[in-house]
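Chapter summary example.
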Amino acid sequence: MTSAPSAVLNASWSHLGHDVHCLQRIPEQDVEHGGRQRPALLLVHGFGASTDHWRHNIPKLSLTHEVHAIDLLGFGRSAKPGGLDYGGDLWKDQLVSYVNERIGRPTVIVGNSLGGYAALAAAAALESQSAGVVLLNAAGYFSDEKFSPKPKDMTSRLRQMIGQGLSRDLVVKWLIYPLIQRMIFENLRRPGVIRSTLKQVYIDPANVDDDLIESIRRPSLDPGAFQVFRNVFQARGLRGKPIDELFNDLQAPLLLLWGDGDPWLRNAKAKQEKFRTYAKEASLEVKEVLLNAGHCPHDEVPDLVNSELLEWLTGLSIA
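The structure predicted for these 319 residues follows.
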């Protein structure tokens, strides 16, 4: 039996002395009776996104589960301070601290793209406090690959955003010069460019609406946003253990939800096979689902993602 969730609580939390924006929503029955028989959920956005990107997921998931969403440092409404070493280790530590300090019990961490890598790294570090991890078109690299993100991967994305007429060599040269970097950044945060980019990575653009565009544009106006952009696009954006090593450390079930039409997933079939192979080698309990969607299936086909996630969650329990 389900009941209406309580209102979404917009909250502020602090990590390393910096403000972090987060959301929390708990089913009424859990508020009234202290129900903790189900794991909590922590939702983690991808590059350039925020808690707003879970707009179609939180209402449904919070009917039955305690749901949290967080803006990674450098994104959304969270602080974007200078001097931080933005990358996978920072975001992993942020998520681990949040689970320990704000949730305080076994948690399923759900992440998209860059947030998928951070979710996996955090889940591996949390050990028994991780109830599971859900990866939606996760970023990351394997130990038999060169350190990721590869320059050619990042320049390919920039060419898609700016214009396919640019050569890869030219984009690489552009990334060296701060003034050119700034010009690219200013262009990428224009509403029309954001809309065009999203339509490239959503197979069905029905949910590419004004609210989504504004949720991406607004944080890009914050002081420090440009430095975060530079960090990620100068091939310095993830750092940390390769995915196969994280699989070996993971002590929880794994759900892989793939938007199978993702134009940003280079060699998609080979990448999916690597996830499959290394998860099996790590003896993980894994389920994989292919969805007719692009890079952000949770927002493009939220009903399918919610359904698959909730079905998978019914098989999980916590002590």
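To summarize the output: Strands lie at 9-15, 18-25, 40-44, 67-70, 107-112, 130-136, 254-259, 286-291.
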